[in-house]
Amino acid sequence: MKKQFAIIGLGRFGQSVCRELYHLGHEVLAIDKNQKKIEDASSYATHTLLADGTDEAALKQIGIRNFEHVIVAIAEDIQASILCTLHLKDMNVPKVWVKAQNSYHHKVLEKIGADRIFHPEHDMGNRIAQFLTSEKVIDYIDLSADYSIVEVITTSKVEGKSLIELDIRARFGCTILAIKQNGKVNITPNPNDELHKGDILIMIGSKQDLRRFQDEAL
């Protein structure tokens, strides 16, 4: 379903989000106060607008309140990010998603009502750390400080063993959500299903339990 997004701030993060949403077929309005960035964005945005995201009158004039999703990506200037977010919430924009620079910025954004707060550098740092410390991790999603979803690739250690034999939930406290085998995804794995080297397990659990499973079972 096609949606309308407005992105305020065209730094690297804003450009990346804008480009991806546009390529996914959504309508995207790109806003920045830098003329060069606006000119560059014309190739990956439906509409572009030269405007200051902290200017309440300008935001009202462009009808920003008509957008269901507005992404504030001007985290480098914390004061501008906070002021822009305040304006958007005062205008009752349904979903205001904001990039935070640090924990202080995050706390302020929470207090003024930002609907979702991003920490792309921190999140990417976590993902890279997971990849660097385990050759078995294919992908990684942080759910909280304690829980994650991971994709891990199996080794010859589990070759021919069934899920019931491995008894993963009882031994490690982790749950298998799905198994990728030969390019196909099985979202309802049977306890008797056998695993083979190179299969991908999509698992959920505490970070400690998931790490223990990787170290001991794989």
Structure, explained:
By secondary structure, this protein is of the alpha/beta class. The chain contains nine helices and eleven strands. It has helices at 12-23, 35-41, 56-61, 78-90, 103-111, 120-133, 163-166, 168-172, 207-217; strands at 4-8, 27-32, 47-50, 69-72, 95-99, 116-118, 137-142, 147-153, 175-181, 184-186, 200-206. It has a six-stranded parallel β-sheet, sandwiched between helices. A five-stranded antiparallel β-sheet has the order 7-8-11-9-10. Strand 2 (27-32), helix 2 (35-41) and strand 3 form a beta-alpha-beta unit.
The biggest sheet amounts to:
6 strands, parallel
Rg estimate, integer Å: 22 Å
Q: Treating each run of at least 4 consecutive H or I residues as one helix, how many helices?
A: 9
Number of strands: 11
Strand content: 25-35%
How far apart the termini lie comes to 40 Å
Q: What structural class results from the helix and strand content?
A: alpha/beta
- Percent helix, as a range, is 25-40%
> Would you identify the regions where 5 or more consecutive residues have pLDDT less than 50?
none
The strand line-up of the biggest sheet is 3-2-1-4-5-6
The secondary-structure element order is EHEHEHEHEHEHEEHHEEEH
pLDDT averaged residue by residue: 89
**C-alpha geometry:** elongated
- Give the oligomeric state: single chain
What labels describe this entry?
218 residues; alpha/beta; six-stranded parallel beta sheet; 9 helices
